[in-house]
Amino acid sequence: MNCRSEVLEVTVEARQVEEAMLALLHTILLHRSTGKFHYKKEGTYSIGTVGTLDFDCDFIDFTFVRVSSEELDRVIRKAVSEFKDALSNSGSDGMGQISLEFYQKKKSRWPFSDECIPWEVWSIKVNVVNLANEQERQICREKVGEKLGEKVINVVEVINRHEYLPKMPTQSEVDNVFDTSLKDVQPYLYKITYQITDSLGTSVSTTMRRLIKDTLAL
Amino acid sequence: MDSDLSPQDKKDLDKFIKFFALKTVQVIVQARLGEKICTRSSSSPTGSDWFNLAIKDIPEVTHEAKKALAGQLPGIGRSMCVEISLKTSEGDSMELETWCLEMNEKCDKDIKVSYTVYNRLSVLLKSLLAITRVTPAYKLSRKQGHDYVILYRIYFGEVQLSGLGEGFQTVRVGVVGTPVGTVTLSCAYRTNLAFMSNRQFERSAPIMGIIVDHFVDPPCSSQRPANMGQPCNYRAPDEEDGGTFAGVQDSQEVCTTSFSTSPPSQLYTSRLSYQPPALTGAAELCHPAGNPNQVLHAGKEGGVVLVPAQPPHGADAHITVEHAPNTPSSSGDDDGLSQSAEGRRDEGRRSVSPADPVESLSAFTRKVGAFVNKPSTQITAASLDLPFAAFAPRGLDSEENDPMVQPPDSPPCPSPLQASLHSQGSEGSGQQDDFVMVDFRPAFSKDDLLPMDLGTFYREFQNPPQLASLSLHISSQSMADDLDSLPEKLRVYEKNIDEFDAFVDMLQ
């Protein structure tokens, strides 16, 4: 099975990094989250309800819709915040990439650990620019808003191709497909990683791989 | 065709499509209410949340949608459309977007109705939630209030996109294949948001009397005509103040209203584009038709205003408008030119190459040049307020208007100066023959009819002729008169010596 890979690229000002990443990651997760499964007898299940929430960005002229789940929001914000800090500490160039990877777990026999097989990877490349004056910042605010709108349309277009999605699992398999740790929603298993490119942009001198969801822990 | 589909599946599919249509309308209208939407996730299914999404049902909207559907389902050739329009407090209105739920004949026989189709419809609804915040009407709807309101209209049948103006864009939200056809959800939105007022037409001959009737009947009443829109302001039914605008459809056809905070001379068509065109460079400066990156902010300062975003890269808004007369930048050019011409005259002959910045500005501004006021044919010397105008030769009319050549208040010159002028006058006459008048040619313009360019212009003004008044004055008097009047003149001059000193200082 091939892993679907999509790349989105944005150019933002430093203070816009967080909201731009949140906008895109939440938009993707909105489509890749379902309600909580409640398994009943005889292999049937019912699905909970996913609520949605409009979020107005402060530094970008943009509003995005996210899943109405504070837990999920916290997790995403934490990841984005780490990415933003790494980006600002890295150097003057301000280029980096944050990746949202959806995967399935495949249980292996002992002593081998479970395998994580990605089936969809979204890579968001970020280019941070510095602006000289307020007028440019105002223009950037609006332009980035429009660009994010375009990216949302791209995301929606990819998702609505209705390509491979993991099969709906049985009760015993649900943790191999979905992240069941949240109380109110159930996204597909995912992990967020990021990379900061150095000023040369040619090689990755600093690679930080942080597993937000520690799925490899035994 | 449906033989493969079990009756239960067919029934389920119909139900899914019906409720999908109703939920689609709810999402769209709620996204245009002007408020942020927030619904709660619930881990326990309530059974009433279709497609596992918490989407509230506004009763009036459901009613309108059901009324439009009239028991039918979206099918091939029968699309369900939600039209979003804007109506100002003055009664002008404009269609902003049309959301279309269509069905085409491409069937996916193998798909499982109760599971795959349902889940995909759920994903499509989520996509609709996301896309409704992205189209331009969203920002407008968030700012609706006293100055304008957003209205919706649901209709069933053929899709009508003519009201969206030229250059409307389409975004496809998504498709879901079903055994009976493919459900497609898309949005066509207006990009041309500048429109001119039709008020002048209304006063002369109202197309349809604009009914200022803000108190509409409750929705259950069947008196409202089908082409009226509903306001996207959800209130309890008895408090509705919908904009009844029976004249909307017709008035849109007649003409349009301009929304702009810029002065009228700087109006230009705005174009919003969500396609990825090659707009990222400074090439935007050269787009005469408008600013592709325009963002709409309506209703801020009162009245619906179309506030153009600052043109990209900090360029001055004036410069992006071609052929704008009397823009401030062009008056700045005037001063620059007159100063530079003066400098050249002082320095004598000098070859001047056309200044590149000035030439580039010529592409942007087109106005009457500094040295030209009127065509010479229209000038009679007597009509000019000039000293010695009666003596002005015809051929030097344009020069007469030139404040550089003809200072308005030239004091009488002392005789030594006169003598020098006289000697130059004879040369000047020869020079006058070489002098080619720049008759009513705009400065800095590229005139395709005549090969007059900036370089030629400068060269010609390298050798300005003598002050016409002085040379004429001299020629009109004989030397004898001069000598006779000399003592008296000297007395006058000595009296006013301070004035002359100041004048001489000024010349230096």
UniProtKB/TrEMBL annotation, chain A:
<protein>
    <recommendedName>
        <fullName>Autophagy-related protein 101</fullName>
    </recommendedName>
</protein>
<dbReference type="GO" id="GO:1990316">
    <property type="term" value="C:Atg1/ULK1 kinase complex"/>
</dbReference>
<dbReference type="GO" id="GO:0000045">
    <property type="term" value="P:autophagosome assembly"/>
</dbReference>
<dbReference type="GO" id="GO:0019901">
    <property type="term" value="F:protein kinase binding"/>
</dbReference>
<dbReference type="InterPro" id="IPR012445">
    <property type="entry name" value="ATG101"/>
</dbReference>
<dbReference type="Pfam" id="PF07855">
    <property type="entry name" value="ATG101"/>
</dbReference>
<comment type="similarity">
    <text>Belongs to the ATG101 family.</text>
</comment>
<keyword id="KW-0072">Autophagy</keyword>
<dbReference type="GO" id="GO:0000407">
    <property type="term" value="C:phagophore assembly site"/>
</dbReference>
Automatic annotation (TrEMBL), chain B:
<dbReference type="GO" id="GO:1990316">
    <property type="term" value="C:Atg1/ULK1 kinase complex"/>
</dbReference>
<keyword id="KW-0963">Cytoplasm</keyword>
<dbReference type="Pfam" id="PF10033">
    <property type="entry name" value="ATG13"/>
</dbReference>
<feature type="compositionally biased region" description="Polar residues">
    <location>
        <begin position="417"/>
        <end position="432"/>
    </location>
</feature>
<dbReference type="GO" id="GO:0010506">
    <property type="term" value="P:regulation of autophagy"/>
</dbReference>
<dbReference type="GO" id="GO:0034727">
    <property type="term" value="P:piecemeal microautophagy of the nucleus"/>
</dbReference>
<keyword id="KW-0072">Autophagy</keyword>
<comment type="similarity">
    <text>Belongs to the ATG13 family. Metazoan subfamily.</text>
</comment>
<dbReference type="GO" id="GO:0000407">
    <property type="term" value="C:phagophore assembly site"/>
</dbReference>
<feature type="domain" description="Autophagy-related protein 13 N-terminal">
    <location>
        <begin position="91"/>
        <end position="195"/>
    </location>
</feature>
<dbReference type="InterPro" id="IPR036570">
    <property type="entry name" value="HORMA_dom_sf"/>
</dbReference>
<protein>
    <recommendedName>
        <fullName>Autophagy-related protein 13</fullName>
    </recommendedName>
</protein>
<dbReference type="InterPro" id="IPR040182">
    <property type="entry name" value="ATG13"/>
</dbReference>
<dbReference type="GO" id="GO:0005829">
    <property type="term" value="C:cytosol"/>
</dbReference>
<dbReference type="InterPro" id="IPR018731">
    <property type="entry name" value="Atg13_N"/>
</dbReference>
<dbReference type="GO" id="GO:0042127">
    <property type="term" value="P:regulation of cell population proliferation"/>
</dbReference>
<feature type="region of interest" description="Disordered">
    <location>
        <begin position="305"/>
        <end position="358"/>
    </location>
</feature>
<dbReference type="GO" id="GO:0034497">
    <property type="term" value="P:protein localization to phagophore assembly site"/>
</dbReference>
<feature type="region of interest" description="Disordered">
    <location>
        <begin position="394"/>
        <end position="432"/>
    </location>
</feature>
<dbReference type="GO" id="GO:0000423">
    <property type="term" value="P:mitophagy"/>
</dbReference>
<feature type="compositionally biased region" description="Pro residues">
    <location>
        <begin position="405"/>
        <end position="415"/>
    </location>
</feature>
